[in-house]
Task: inverse folding
């Protein structure tokens, strides 16, 4: 079993975002959502993105997912520029109730993308069974999503993403709408899946604790128009558990640090080396272009 | 990739209503009573009142029932009922296909919608029977004319409801379909048609009653057989009990078709009913 610490530090570049700029045109008045974002994510990394509400987190994720064309800048995934939803990527949205097909059973929901990949039947069934088992839903393949609790529905969405065998998995505040208890379980589930599958994970959240608990790296975004406040490395031990990790002194320090950054961002503070609108300055420090 | 480990199975959150068989039978009996109660009362009142009410135009129900068999089961089933139903079902099928195909096209494109909607609203506002004389000029008085009358009249509710249904498909579900790179045909089948199916069925249900009306009207205008034709013939020849049997038969045909429709809807939209029930019952 490979763990994150065994992985080579100089892993290949999975995702590269260069000078991303996004302006919404609404009712004739342009709104600058993202001013300039530049960062890289290496293969096998677990990166969390936090920021105050309205920081353009979802916009960023939708741009990377190829669902929203950026106004400027480049995004490339595994070396290929993103124009439209790329191959090898899965997204788990916050609103699980709206992202599952209500007319398909749990198993059919998970299987649908695999059919589209034209996988043979036996292979599809194996993947569906395994991924449902991995999220603890092996007993409800024939149920419909709306027959399940919110936490279980989000597990179905995660199982669907996992069965798809993506190289990069992106999650947009996936646990914002589930209760605290379920949330802790799902966080551990995501860590566990990340460990076992060796995929790259990009996790957007507004919850600072969650970001630090999950991530190896936390990108803190400023308020609108968005730039990166700081790229925080999470130097916590790789084996994490809800009680122990959250009680570590280092966890507290990191939380205080990120909390302060987010508070600053809320007050409209901008990083000192903020690039001008439209310019592409390299902010990500781990992987200079 | 390493091996998945089994996790603790989460409890099944299914809302199962478990009742005793006895209670269920009782409930079914009560439902039957509720459904059949009013018809039984109405028939009884009609039967008794018409027996005493000596009018040429309102023959006793007893006489109507006695006439029913000889009128319809001695040749008219194949001679009139089957041709009528064939026209009805062909016209209706044409309306469903046209309505869904055009509805999906128009519903999928905001530009096309803005372009076509005023025209559609206009055509929908025209009472369909008005078109019968005009369509007779183009298609004669044969079966083709009747099928086209039924189709052109019944297509509007299906078309407009399909447009609404396609437009109302959740954008997040569309995004999901896009991120998993579903192919256009899969997207049409699994996302668009299923997503719009509740509205398609609403339109199709309205269209069914319109289609029946148009079948009768088109046969009353010009025909040499059919239910509408027979009823008009009976009326003109003052065969009043026979005319009433035709009206009863039309009602029965309508009820039967709507029962079949509901049975199909029950199966196809089972998910929709369940989803709405679970939403009403709170977020489980």
Result:
């Amino acid at each position: 079993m490979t763990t994150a610490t065994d992985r080579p530090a100089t892993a290949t570049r999975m995702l590269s975002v260069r000078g991303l700029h996004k302006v919404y045109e609404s009712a004739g008045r342009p709104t600058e959502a993202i001013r300039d974002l530049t960062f890289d994510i290496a293969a096998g990394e677990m990166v969390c993105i936090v920021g105050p509400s309205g920081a353009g987190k979802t916009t960023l994720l939708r741009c990377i997912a190829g669902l929203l064309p950026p106004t400027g800048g480049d995004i490339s995934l595994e070396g290929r520029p993103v124009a439209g939803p790329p191959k090898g990527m899965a997204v788990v949205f916050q609103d699980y109730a709206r992202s599952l097909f209500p007319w398909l059973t749990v198993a059919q929901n998970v299987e649908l993308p695999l059919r589209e990949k034209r996988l043979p039947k036996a292979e599809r069934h194996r993947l569906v069974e395994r991924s449902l088992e991995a999220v603890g839903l092996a007993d409800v393949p024939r149920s419909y999503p709306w027959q399940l609790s919110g936490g279980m529905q989000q597990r179905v969405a995660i199982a669907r993403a996992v069965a798809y065998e993506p190289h990069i998995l992106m999650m947009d505040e996936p646990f914002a709408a589930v209760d605290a208890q379920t949330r802790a379980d799902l966080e551990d589930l995501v860590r566990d899946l990340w460990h076992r599958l060796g995929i790259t994970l990009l996790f957007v959240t507004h919850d600072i604790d969650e970001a630090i608990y999950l991530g190896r790296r936390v990108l803190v975004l400023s308020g609108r128009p968005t730039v990166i406040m700081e790229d925080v490395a999470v130097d916590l031990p790789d084996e994490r558990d809800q009680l122990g990790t959250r009680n570590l002194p280092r966890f507290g320090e990191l939380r205080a640090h990120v909390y302060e950054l987010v508070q600053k961002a809320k007050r409209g503070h901008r990083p000192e080396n903020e690039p001008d609108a439209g310019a592409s300055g390299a902010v990500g420090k781990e992987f200079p272009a | 990739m390493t091996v998945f480990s089994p996790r603790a199975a989460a409890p099944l959150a299914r809302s199962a209503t478990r009742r005793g068989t006895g209670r269920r039978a009782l409930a079914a009996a009560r439902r039957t009573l509720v459904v059949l109660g009013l018809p039984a009362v109405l028939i009884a009142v009609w039967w008794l009142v018409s027996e005493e009410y000596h009018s040429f135009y309102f023959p006793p129900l007893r006489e109507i029932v006695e006439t029913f068999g000889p009128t319809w089961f001695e040749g008219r089933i194949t001679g009139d009922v089957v041709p009528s139903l064939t026209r009805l079902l062909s016209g209706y099928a044409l309306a469903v296909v046209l309505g869904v195909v055009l509805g999906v096209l128009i519903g999928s494109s905001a530009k096309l919608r803005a372009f076509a909607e005023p025209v559609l609203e206009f055509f929908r506002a025209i009472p369909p029977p008005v078109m019968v004389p005009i369509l007779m000029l183009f298609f004669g008085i044969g079966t083709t004319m009747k099928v086209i009358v039924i189709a052109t009249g019944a297509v509007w509710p299906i078309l407009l409801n399909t447009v609404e249904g396609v437009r109302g498909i959740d954008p997040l579900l569309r995004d999901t379909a896009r991120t998993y790179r579903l192919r256009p045909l899969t997207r049409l089948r699994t996302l668009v048609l299923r997503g719009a199916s509740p509205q398609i069925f609403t339109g199709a249900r309205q269209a069914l009653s319109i289609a029946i009306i148009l079948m009768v009207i088109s046969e009353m205008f010009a025909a040499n057989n059919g239910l509408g034709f027979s009823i008009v013939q009976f009326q003109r020849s003052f065969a009043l009990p026979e005319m009433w049997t035709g009206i009863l038969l039309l009602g029965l045909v309508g009820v039967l078709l709507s029962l079949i429709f509901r049975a199909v809807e029950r199966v196809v939209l089972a998910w929709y009913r369940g989803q709405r029930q679970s939403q009403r019952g709170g977020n489980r």
Summary: Chain A has a mean pLDDT of 82. The two ends of chain A are 31 Å apart (CA to CA). The first strand of chain A starts at residue 13 and ends at 26.
